[in-house]
Amino acid sequence: MASSAMHARGPRKPTRYFGILPRSPAFWFLIPAIAALAIIGIYPLLLALYNSFHQYKLADLGSGTPFIGVDNYVATLTDPTFWEALGRTALFLCLTLPIEIALGLFAALLLHRMELPWLRAAARVSLVIPMATTYAVVGLIGRLIFNRQFGVANYLTGLIGIPPQDWLADPTLAFVSVMIMDIWQWTPFCALILLAGLSMVPKEAEEAARLETPKWSMILWHLQRPYLLPGLTAILILRSADMLKMFDAVFTMTRGGPGAATEFISVYIQRVGFRLFDQGMASAQAIILLILTIVLSRLYIRFVYREAA
User: Fold this and answer.
1) What residues does each domain of the chain span?
2) CATH number of the structural domain 80-308
3) Is residue 285 within a helix (H) or strand (E), and if so which, with residue range?
4) pLDDT for 42-98, tens place per residue?
């Protein structure tokens, strides 16, 4: 009788203080996270958006920060150096991300077929180590590996008869060096995400498919692919966003050089904002980069995740 009366009254509404704030403990536990998000994320974004519509030069603060409308955006879109840096970043993304996904898929398939539980657990732990390494440390490791005098890269290439190369002083080799370090750090991330997708495949279906055909490519395409597509979408979104804002490892390893060979868009924005001291222009460039990231993420969801659904 009491339960029927409770269902008739509907769900109980949370008690409120002063008619505004809910009394639920969950709300008060969320307040620190909301405050941190507002301070660390929302406020800098709003400040950058505000600065992008103003003339804000750190070297000339005496003249104030007058409102100039969309002049910073027009100057950015007509700046050939900006487009060169963006094109260089797009080239890096188009070359590096497919390699990371391919190697990650290969590693995920090996781990998925691995029979020994302890060996599988050890392999998973070892995959976390590169991901846990900070970007700045990855850049320092890259400087040591590709050093001309004592780098491991020249030692390994010397084993096959290739003379020592000045990796970080040659534009093409410097670009390739940054690619290699990024592939080393983030291929394990792709492998773990794809391995999680493979673990969702029903074992009975896999066993039946192996009885039907011995070709692993047929099993991958027809059975495992639908389970991999959601994880693949997450990889594309997260890694594309990371590559578009990639700064620490590149700046530590090459400083954007030699010349502008590794001056990606984030390095160029840093140069405009903190070497040319034009915060307004740098803010406009950062907002444009944010818009490009959102558009790219929506395209991934539209064309990759929709197929998975």
Assistant:
1) 80-308
2) 1.10.3720.10
3) helix 279-300
4) 999 999 999 999 999 888 887 888 999 999 999 999 999 999 999 999 999 999 999
